[in-house]
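Justification of computing resources. Each target in the renewal requires a structure prediction run like the one illustrated here; the chain below, 276 residues long, is used simply to show the kind of job we budget for.
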Amino acid sequence: MGLVLVATPIGNAADITLRALDILSRAHLVACEDTRVTSKLFALHGISAKLMPYHEHNAAKVRPALIKRLKNGESVALVSDAGTPMVSDPGYSLVRECIAEGIPVTAAPGASSVLTALQLSGLPTDRFMFVGFLPPKSGARKKALAAVANIPATLVFLESPKRLASSLADMAEVLGPREAAMARELTKMFEEVRRGPLGELAEHFAQAGSPKGEVTLVVAAPSVQARKYSPEEVDDALREALKSSRVRDAAALVSLSAGWSKRDVYARALALTDEG
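Resulting structure tokens:
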């Protein structure tokens, strides 16, 4: 059987496939992020397979042992704490090494917070890009957002509840007034999907505080016919961006959402700096 990448529920424990249960029950070893989390899932479904922790902190040390067992003909299943392995977890390196060693690799697909949030967002699903987690600090976060601002696809992010309001505010500044959806506690009792323009979502969570649960953000692609900012709006956006960025970086960020050339925005940024 080789290495099998097995998707686990993202919330509701019933969201696991019959094939996944069969693979997990027959595997010689199940590599998981946290044995405590996976043990609870196994207890619910009567699975008694042996567990081995495999996460970002021990992956380099544990991977050779997994490869050795696979070469000896044992079957190994890889699971994450929730959802589909290989999405924001260290499974990539293990898969790459298995491929290099000629070890069979297959997958038992299933739940994914990325696809579930995309389905519920009400935004176009024909083309999307998974961005993952943004940097925790605002300056680096804005630069990361600027790098994907012009991609003609719906964007999907993961975010910490504690950083949700600040991340949404940075998104509104860099990406402009795009439609978006915040999805949390997906498939659980208190599932919530809140939709609206980025600025409105940022304002809501700034007032309401950090929500509970895992958060996935879905943001619309840039509009081909996006409204061009007035000079006053460009100046307002620049003043805000200049609080945390250098003149050139602030101009680059604002030009993405303002519909102005970088050169013209940079000139206004210099003028504002001289005034200030």
